[in-house]
Amino acid sequence: MFMTTTETIPGREIELLGMVKGATIQSKNIGRDIGAGLKSIVGGELKGYTEMMEEARDMAVKRMIQEAEKLGADAIVCVRFSTSAIMPGAAEVMAFGTAVRYK
């Protein structure tokens, strides 16, 4: 599935099918919390959290693509990501865009 953050695909005429989205909610675990707590003392990247957020983005994109495929889409344009805190220790990651079919 072709995805882009732009509104158009150069050289392609497209038909809009509708908005598609994918989301997941990830929570911290004790191992990541301990590592993050220690890292906050000395500074630096919180690799456990970075990996967690990468996994969450990948899952959200996968779910968005599945929704687009159900519509018969060839591509998704205007792809965006959103994150929000759901509760202490848990965050939602959402991927969304517009499913399109090539004319």
TrEMBL record:
Domain of life, per UniProt, equals: Bacteria
Q: Which Pfam families does the entry link to?
A: YbjQ_1
InterPro entries found in the cross-reference section: UPF0145_dom_sf, UPF0145_YbjQ-like
Family membership noted in the UniProt record: Belongs to the UPF0145 family.
PANTHER family in the cross-refs: UPF0145 PROTEIN SCO3412, UPF0145 PROTEIN YBJQ
Record-given protein name: UPF0145 protein H9X83_04890
